[in-house]
Amino acid sequence: MPGYLTKQEDVAVVGAADLIIRSLLDKQQFHDPLGEAEALGISSATWPLFGLLWPSAAHLAQRMASRPLLVGERVLEIGCGLGLASLVCHRRGIDITASDCHPLARQFLQENVRLNGMTPLKYCTGQWGAQGEAGPEVQTNGKTEELESAVQGHFDLIVGSDVLYERDARATLASFLDRHAASGAQIWIVDPNRGNRTTFHKQMAAHRFEVVEERLDQPALGKVAAYKGRLMVYERPVLG
If you count DSSP H runs as helices and E runs as strands, how many of each does the chain have, helices first? Predict the structure, then answer.
């Protein structure tokens, strides 16, 4: 694949079988010759972030590995990046849809599905920033183009990891979650203690979501670095 370097490694997920994951070699990789990422508001500095393995993603994947299976439940992963949690869910037979706004996320996810010998995994474009709030369209080279597979419908569980890394003054993520959360849905966000967490709580509260936090702090263990963060579970009372 021209324009950047990748690596392939075995990734251990507590409670699940190891996964073979192809990722970007490092944070220095960047290749956007058609300006697709730029049109979506993805800068050269943030371009590589989707293609790296992040500690919070591993914690979310671990949680999804042990979550009880619920018949008929629809699950959406937002900002999936390499899709670690989605791959764990898919292997377990959970009805999971992975989503991300990065132009290459689908391609990397499909390759990781192939590397692990899985059947195709559902993927949709999930954009909640300035372009995403306008609907399933983006501006590319001065022309409006419809995103062919934007996230649609409602889900019983929406999960994400490390998605609060940018300030969101317009509460676009909270609005996105409100639109796609089914009645009685839960939203799980694993966050490595980002500074935007308190503001996000208030934005979710505006949509009547209540939150319960669980600390996920753990010391360094062998080659695994120490982690400080929390699982935030949002749910709103069902009006009866």
Answer: 7, 11
DSSP string of 192-232, one letter each residue: S--TTHHHHHHHHHTTT-EEEEEE--B--BTTBPPB--EEE
Contact 59, 227 (CB under 8 A): yes
Backbone dihedral angles phi then psi of residue 221, each to the nearest 5 degrees: -130, 105
* DSSP type of residue 100: E
pLDDT in tens, 113-124: 999 999 999 999
- Rounded to an integer, the average pLDDT of 177-188 is 96
- The dihedral through the CA atoms of 49, 57, 182, 16 has a sign that is positive
For the sheet containing 230-235, what is the strand order?
A: 122-125, 95-100, 74-77, 155-161, 181-191, 230-235, 210-215
76-111 tens-digit pLDDT: 999 999 999 999 999 999 999 999 999 999 999 999
**C-alpha angle 72-100-136 in degrees, rounded to nearest 5:** 90
Residue range 1-30, pLDDT digits in tens = 678 999 999 999 999 999 999 999 999 999
pTM value? 0.91
Contact 76/159 with Cβ under 8 angstroms?
A: yes
